[in-house]
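Case study: 3-dehydroquinate synthase.
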Amino acid sequence: MQSIIPVKLPQNAYEIHIATDGIKDIGQKAKSLNIGQKILVISNPEIFNYYGQIVIESLRQEGFEVDHHLIPAGESYKTLDSISSIYDKALSLRLERNSTMVALGGGVIGDMTGFAAATWLRGINFIQIPTSLLAMVDASVGGKTGVNHPQGKNLIGAFYQPKLVLIDPMVLKTLPEREFRAGMAEVIKYGVIWDKELFEQLESADNLKSMDVLSPELLSYILERSCLAKAEVVGQDEREGGLRAILNYGHTVGHGVESLTNYHTFVHGEAVAIGMAIAGKIALQAQLWTQDELIRQNNLIKKAGLPLDIPSSVNQEDLLNSLQLDKKVKAGKVRFILPTEIGKVIITDDISQDLLKTCF
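Here is what the predicted structure looks like once written out:
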């Protein structure tokens, strides 16, 4: 399979290349971008062990000077300390303004590499090679970069667009099943907020829990439609002035659940799944959509083997308070993305605390 999806932005347009075994061609693709000679590949040890040498050899064959820097895997390393270690490596390599950082990994590596690239020398080139389903369909596209603060997720960051996103579906073969399921949460999200046809295709599948049970055709369809949905939304609203906020469906409560469980209980997609289930419940209570539509959404979440319920260990008051730290809070009011039907959502801050409490 091979397809190219343009991300149409006024100043920083780029392309998403989806290609089977495309990771072997990163050198040629980088050469066509007219970037400098020095490249720093940033990854985690496990992913680098699988794909690092393939990427480095491909880049070196095209004449690039390549080095690498590894950061331990996991959300707990998505910190300013990790960013500082990237800066130290960039300084030792004397990276210049036309140099490039390549993110080889999942969403955590992509977010950190993007933030480091955005801030080193006030901005150098940046390429995304996502290796998880979640990163392929969501985190690698759109230019959101950043790290966590102890008090909240992604509170420190920048909008910074990559020069290229290269998606190779074959790398999903080494992705743990739990991480694949987590990525399916973001795919389901696109179906609810933007793409009714995608939602219906997911409904027609018998099982969404692992790559092994998906046909290559369905996997291709999922990747293309999800990236297209993200590209269309970002193309209309690069810096989340309005429409782009809909991409945070399920994330408002999801981020709260993640932080209140210290990022140890759930991976990101699992928390988003819980957030979508709660948002669907809020929409039902607010009479925005029907019980049938809520059941359809939750059935898809269950089909992907994802959780629906806030764990009993999370205190209701703590969760309500954590929502006030969400980046979408405006004038002290929490903005929720809520569905009105499959494929359409609204942004509203008109949800009372009392209504919220009935849904938590």
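For the exam, be able to explain this: The domain at 185-359 is CATH 1.20.1090.10 (Dehydroquinate synthase-like, alpha domain).
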